[in-house]
Amino acid sequence: SDVYKRQCKVSRVTQIYAHEHHVTIIEAMRRFYRSETYKLLADESTKYWHYGPVALYQEFADELEQKGSKL
Q: What is the pLDDT of residue 69?
């Protein structure tokens, strides 16, 4: 299902983030779920669910860079 696919992508994005930023998976998930990237992923009309985990991670990383901080 689409929800399962989205959860798998969230899991992979947060694993990458946790590894790259030396935080726990729980902290990475907290930050991702609070992001605009996740809001876009959760909104079917944006088609973000077509993106793979690496592309989603890059969107998330770009968002954080634009904000100049961690969520």
A: 58
